[in-house]
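@here heads up, posting the sequence + SMILES for the adenosine-5'-diphosphate run so it's all in one place. Ping me if the SMILES looks off, I pulled it from an old spreadsheet.
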Amino acid sequence: MRTRTRNKWIKYLFMKKNASLAPYLPETRKMSNQALWSLLEKHRHVMVKPVWGSRGRGVIQVSDLGNDNYIIHFENMRTMKRGKKNAYRYIKSKIGSSAYMVQRRITRPTINKRLFDMRVIVQRKRNSSDWVVTGKVIKVAGKGYIVSNNTRSHGQLLRFKPGIQRSSIRHLPITELETQIDKVSLLSADTLRPLFPNHRIYGLDIATDRQGHVSIIEANLYPAMSHFLKLKDGVMYRRILSYKNEPPLLSNRKMIINKRYVSNHLADSSNPLIFH
Ligand SMILES: Nc1ncnc2c1ncn2[C@@H]1O[C@H](COP(=O)(O)OP(=O)(O)O)[C@@H](O)[C@H]1O
Ligand SMILES: [Mg+2]
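bot reply: prediction finished. Complex structure tokens:
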């Protein structure tokens, strides 16, 4: 459904207006020939993505190699195009008539040579204005993919600390990194509150670069619970549901022991108790 809850461009503009949050939002423009080449010239790599996208669908990475050569990375395929005209025509063939935007690419760190970013769940209780981080998971992109969306990229989900400790940024102070991620996530939820006054849950896509600088990729209003079910982390899953005032679908024991039960429910994306 085309509501503003799913409109990435509106959410980006609204968040960017908050001066304390603006530094964490990568430069983004509505897609056009001019916007693409000017952002590429500045940043060398950009992400071109649908304003109404979800689950990593239609996300394209464009890189300027120099000498008028461009690499276009879509799904798990990389194609080289010579000349701006050819490159743009190829990108347009993927985009069609959909509304798109173009965003500076965050150069993400890796785990086993695969790119990763994070999903952070922020919630508040009914009648409370205090936002709390209730869940956090590392999303590792599958081999050859630039999107970390778990199903699309056949990726991997990891807990925060063990994931960072196995990553190419393991030398960074982990507590400071987590504090910064939490701060930016909480501030995002608080900033979006006037736009969605009754809303009580956000799933932030957060990326860090290879120096540990934090960026907000997008704010989801209807984050999937599947990450926490797949991770088989009963603690995070139950905490999230308790904030939602919903009974857990699965007991902790069932979740850990009965893998088939979990995967059957995950397969049913229309199940409102999990995907909502
Ligand atoms: N600017 C960016 N820099 C680095 N990676 C990005 C960027 N934008 C998107 N991605 C990757 O692509 C994925 C999908 O993009 P996102 O904006 O979250 O759209 P969707 O609604 O399809 O999930 C992100 O989770 C991230 O892995
Ligand atoms: Mg996303």
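MO: The longest helix spans residues 174-192.
MO: One more: Residues 110-255 form a domain with the D-amino Acid Aminotransferase; Chain A, domain 1 fold (CATH 3.30.470.20).
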